[in-house]
């Protein structure tokens, strides 16, 4: 595996922290701006048709509907990314590095019918106990299987990442 320089947050330029979780590697901004993951990781955990749509749109020229130049630079190479609208959220894509960026600000733009990923008091208490016993790796659980939409899965993923960071 090639060793790359640590990716940085497109918003605050902080080094992103790699979180490996059940075979899904994502880089998370320590300040909570969002998370980055590679196309190959996305194929592991998201639905193929979603990824194909995102990738096809990101590579269209001229820009198709729902595709525009991003305001953000790639976490890896700093080149301006392509913003792709998919399933109600915008993902920023670097087609050179095959990296996708999910901005935490997107969570606020979610449709109202997306399930709230925030944990209940009981769940949080249980999570805290597990965190104390086993550490963050276990609690940053990937819940793709439970989430019907791309949005829901990414939101759940980010929610868990933030929770794990805050608990450490
Ligand atoms: Zn940041
Ligand atoms: Zn790049």
Distance between the termini: 29 Å
Radius of gyration, whole Å? 16 Å
Oligomer: single chain
Major sheet strand order: 1-2-3-7-6-5-4
List of distinct ligands in this structure:
zinc ion
**Biggest sheet record:** 7 strands, antiparallel
Strand content: 15-25%
Count of DSSP-assigned helices:
5
Low-confidence parts, pLDDT < 50 over ≥5 residues?
Answer: 136-145
Structural class: alpha+beta
Shape: globular
Query: What is the tally of beta strands?
Result: 7
Helical content (DSSP H or I, runs of 4+)? 25-40%
If you average the pLDDT, what whole number results? 77
Task: Write the H/E string, N to C.
Answer: EEEHHEEEEHHH
Total tally of structural domains: 1
Explain this structure.
The chain has one domain. A hairpin with a 4-residue loop joins strand 6 and strand 7. The chain is of the alpha+beta class and 168 residues long. It starts with 16 loop residues before the first strand and ends with a helix. It contains five helices and seven strands, in the order E-E-E-H-H-E-E-E-E-H-H-H. It has a seven-stranded antiparallel sheet with strand order 1-2-3-7-6-5-4, with helices on one face. The protein is 32% helix and 24% strand. About 6% of the residues have low confidence. The structure holds zinc ion (2 copies). One zinc ion binds next to loops. The site of one zinc ion has 8 residues, from loops.
